[in-house]
Automatic annotation (TrEMBL):
This is tyrosinase. Residues 245-262, 440-451 form the Tyrosinase copper-binding domain. GO terms for molecular function: metal ion binding; tyrosinase activity. Belongs to the tyrosinase family. Residues 14-34 are annotated as: Disordered. Its EC number is 1.14.18.1. PROSITE patterns: TYROSINASE_1, TYROSINASE_2. Pfam families: Tyrosinase (PF00264). One of its GO terms (biological process) is melanin biosynthetic process. It catalyses: 2 L-dopa + O2 = 2 L-dopaquinone + 2 H2O; L-tyrosine + O2 = L-dopaquinone + H2O. Keywords: Copper, Melanin biosynthesis, Metal-binding. It comes from Choiromyces venosus 120613-1.
Amino acid sequence: MPILNGIKNNEPKISKLWEDPKNPVGAPGNAKWAGADSIEEPASFSGGYGGAITVSPEVKKIIDLRKLASRVQGPEPSKPTWDDHIAELFTKPFWIPEGTERDRVTARWIEAMKGYMMDLESYESVKPWAVTTYYHLRGRSMPLPGELGEKEYFPKEALELIRLWINQGMRKTTDDEIELREEEIEDVDESEWEVPRVRKDILELTQDELDYYRMQLDDVLRVGDPDQSSPWQKLGSIHTEWCLHYQEAFLPWHRAHVLYMESLIGCAVPYWNFFAKGADEYGNPSAGIPQAFLDEEYKHPLTGLMRPNPLKYACANGGMSKGAISPGYQGDLKDSKSKRYVQRDPLLTGGGTEEERREKIAAVKLYQDQILNALTWPIFSQPQGLYGYPWANIQSFDPPPEDDQYPNREDFDGLFEQPHDNFHGWIGPDMADNSYTAFDPIFWSYHANVDRIFEQYIHDHQDATFSSIFPLQPFTGARADKMSLGDPRKHIYTTIGDMTKTSLALGYAIAPPVHEDCPPKPVPYGREGPTAGSKTPYVLFQGVKCTTESYTIDVYINCPETNRRAAASNKHYVGRLTRMGMGASASKGRCVKKGVTRVLNAAGAAECLGIRDDAEPVLSQVVTDIKTGETVPEEVYKGWDGFVGKLVWGAAMPQGKGRRVEKPRG
């Protein structure tokens, strides 16, 4: 199911109310894509990436008939007729520069519409279908043929002419009397004309688009400035102090956070598709951290100077990377300057042996499988603020437990948050700690992709239930474009209901990925999947709550102590649960008090080992402190909430329910 409707995948869309035929849409110096508060004259447009435009009230009145008259041939555009105004909209569209291209486009369009039994050159043919045609043109479901960008669609001026023409009785000539239509077509609401920002796969960005995004981070947010008053430090600290996890608000809150960031820089955040097919294969173009985050420098679009790449050299929380204070971090921190910037796992930046790097990349498959599993469940979450009562689809365990023992075990957001946390830990060390993570620029592209998957869930489950009025502090406004750190009035804050609207309703669209998403696991040839009576082993972690530091919990079944290797190639390995630390900051009461349950599906390991549901496999686990790199002794972590797994047999996952996020057609 395509995420986009009417948006091409090869370019950001540009909202534009004037056009210079000598300098068409998309040419440098003609269209402002981002960062404007108001626009007074066409000359104020300038180049950029992926932004929607905010225009002044004066510009919004461009439909004023005086301006309309300057664009349209023929007398009195306030009283349009077919012969003087409407016919030429179809045969000589004024928004396309006169010439061969316009002639070719209109000829193709006229011929194509004849297939729908309508001759656009004939008044008698168009008149019966005028209202339907108008709404198609207004809804952008009837574009002109050809790669014309924004010019594929009728501009507001042209649509206003058609609207007036219909309302006045669809006159053919000025000799015809005006007969006002009983059911008048109302004017277009301004919100209909907003062209959304387009979040593109970061691998699809042109060099100019990528450098523009870097420039916005550099100039607007001052990513390289460690001063606590810098916009970058303030933006990152929002996550440190306010982020919500282990609850229904998790995905909506992070959607609001990304939207707020985009409102600051005036353009879309490109997403990093860690869910791409092949992202688990060493050497695949989708594997590892995108090169955009590894480059040393970039060319500033305005000054032409080479500058440090802000996607790599971004100041960590307080100007000190988590890696710099983590004895277990193996990266190269040569001097105080390098400690200032965010750090990533050296295996993702060229360090270690090739075998270690291959193993690191292969782990992605386990996390992708967790995402595929999450996408099979229709229930989004348990109600915000309630504990322990999933709404439906409770798995049948043997013996069946009480409902309140296993909150979140089969909710989409709870299951999706597990691979979300794993990827954070996989990138580490700054990304592995909630109080440091938003200071790494990869966080924003990572969460733009998390949001892409969330958007697909919203599209696929339009009957999903949400706690709509729950406030997502500190963001305010229906689109989270402002914030308030201390206002006690709950009603001013952005809500879960606001953030569970479709992306287009929130002012942005999501372009399809460069590489298709990971497909669901196929049922092996000759097998029909589990029968109604078959069972699957699951490892449950109960009472999972916020922690100060970050940990990984690697789980094995029937594994000799000498083979406890956290690798996808290890047949004893069930998977990983990453417990992301929240830091020592004030929590604002945001952490869950009673805890939630996290689930690892052990079916893969059980199948590899030939374990059937009448067996009692031995469960073992290794808990590692990410900061120190040391293994936490069993006698220590057994006293911590949510750190001890329990293996149970439950109903098998139905085959065929898994799905992928489909690539929209162009």
